[in-house]
What we know:
One of its GO terms (molecular function) is pseudouridine synthase activity. This is RluA family pseudouridine synthase. With about 240 residues, the protein is an alpha+beta fold. Helix content is about 15%, strand content about 35%. Strands 1, 2, 3, 4, 5, 6, 7, 8, 9, 10 and 11 form an 11-stranded mixed sheet that branches. It is globular.
Amino acid sequence: MNRPNLWSERKEILFEDNHLLIINKPAGLLVQGDATGDEPLSAKAEEYLRFKYKKPGAAFVGVAHRLDRPVSGVVALAKTSKALSRLNEMFRDNKVHKTYWALTGKCPEPTSGHLTHWLVKDPIKNTTKAYSERHGQGLKSDLDYEVLGQAGNRWLVQVNPITGRPHQIRVQLSTGLGTPIVGDVKYGFLAPLPDVSIALHARRLELQHPVTKEAMSFEAPVPEIAHWEAAKVYY
């Protein structure tokens, strides 16, 4: 039986033990299934686990958080219901520290700071609008950011979201700083990237192991794509 063409364990799989499967998700892949019917990361993970451990039935794969389809980077999946329950609690209580890298077309001003907006999602258009003051049913959303420097003809911005709202980083950088993410035409960038990804990467995830309680940190290298090449000097 040939191994399914899912991942190279030394590349996409960042960590695995009895409870966690940490993946460096490629851009363009859904984390969890939706109306498109496209195969998501969760299904690929289940197939990988069934094959690796020769399971006769379905393998357990729990999704505790998501990345937007055009975004790459670290995703934590649970291999047990106990791990999933505790991961859900940690993400809900903002006890997971997330670090993203974003490329922008111009340098944000000021070059570091804190952004607070109230975000309102339009589920029909799948877009989010940011308001600088409290607005209706808007959810308060906070992030910290810092410009790391130039990356070719782009600027590399490190973002630490404090809350976890849909499209939060994308809309807050665009609305709050006037610096939409490269390739993100939905939020104001002028042109898409050739692979229709956006230059937003979940670089690091820091959390307490849901079972052993060990402090853990996972880093995902940026994609092997031309527009990310210049950012590697900031590793």
